[in-house]
Amino acid sequence: MKSTKNIPKSFIVFLILSILIWLLITLSKEYISQISLNVSYDELPQDKQFRKAPEKELQIIAKGTGFKLLSNRFFNHNIQLKTNKLLKKTNKKYFFLTSSQKNNIQKQLVSGLQLDDFLKDTIYLEIGEFASKKVPVISSLIINYSSGFDALKPIKIIPDSIVVSGPEDQINEINSLTFLTESLENVDANFSKKFKILDSKKLKNINYTTKEVLVNGFVEKYTEGSLMKSFTVNGLPKNINLTLFPKQVKVFYKVDLPRFNEVEESSFNIICDYNISVKNGFSYLIPKIILQPEFVKNVKIIPNKIEYLIQK
Q1: pTM value surpassing 0.85
Q2: Cβ contact 302:250 at 8 Å
Q3: CATH 2.170.120.40-classified regions of the chain
Q4: Which neighbouring-strand residues pair with 49?
Q5: I need a surface site. Which of 96, 127, 138, 161 has the fewest CB within 10 A?
Q6: Cα gap 116→120, rounded to integer Å
């Protein structure tokens, strides 16, 4: 049988101590290294706003002991860059030289780490004038009602308008907002539902006073009704009499059940304009509703043409 020898514990301890001593010696030495800093921007003028997200990292050359460089890698806190003294390149493009921020950055580095140089000498920022305005929220909701049901009145959106703010050129492009398109099926009762405002993929850095709206729908059971109604002929010369075929029309409409009995013949007023028929060379009159109850819908007249004979 082969015999195995156990490694002495003293050897393991000696090996660990040797490694630790080597690390201490190595990390105590001074090095020059490239490191990455997480950055943010402060002191941007109140009347301006970023049109495009600025760079979030800044590459620098730094000098320090291995301990300092290592600690910066593991405990890289945020470095703030000042934007109160920007230089203008174009109408919406600004920049600053990284060298102008050297003292500011040095004060924020880990103690004992010395900033030596920058990999980029210039940082560009796209900035626009800050603006805000109130825009309406437009519904994109598709509602399919159950048989015999319909909307009692238009849906109510709360809030019906939202204040948007951001770069002026982007704000000028926003004339309305909508929410995520959704279809409601077999609706037969009042409903209340929250929807998220739909963001524009083209526009960035836009702020909203709210990103959610409440939509209230009002639903009622509907029925169809009809009645016979006489009409009048306007614009008829005094020396002309007409024989009409027919003398009455049938009015069809849709109304919610609670107000079915409120609809009467006097609720409608129908006229035919003789001058329009003459002007267009029609041999018939066209009946037109000029008065109807606000709560009825889908109103139609049969027949939609009135034949006539002129009596001289």
Answers
A1: no
A2: yes
A3: 130-221
A4: 128
A5: 138
A6: 13
Find how far residue 278's CA is from the centre of its chain.
52
CA dihedral 102, 107, 110, 113 (to 10 degrees): 50
CB atoms within 10 A of CB 231: 22
pLDDT of residue 140: 86
Q: How far apart are CA 162 and CA 134, in angstroms?
A: 5
DSSP string, 138-195: EP--EEEEPTTEEEEEEEEEESSEEEEEEEHHHHTT-S-EEB---EEEEE-S-EEEEE
20-129 architecture in CATH?
A: Beta Complex (2.170)
CA angle (13 as vertex; 12, 18 as ends), nearest 5: 95
User: Which residues, in sequence order, are bridge partners of residue 37?
Assistant: 58
Dig out the tokens for 177 from the structure: 């907002």
The radius of gyration of the chain's CA atoms, rounded to the nearest angstrom, is 39
pLDDT in tens, 57-71: 899 888 887 676 777
Whether 130 contacts 49, CB under 8 Å:
yes
Who contacts 78 (Cβ-Cβ below 8 Å, separation ≥6)?
38, 39, 40
* Structure letter (DSSP) for residue 199: P
Tokens 């909508």 label which residue? 178
Predicted confidence (pLDDT) per residue in 218-232, tens digit:
999 999 999 999 999
Instruction: Name the superfamily (CATH) of residues 130-221.
Output: YbbR-like domain (2.170.120.40)
CA distance 72 to 210: 39
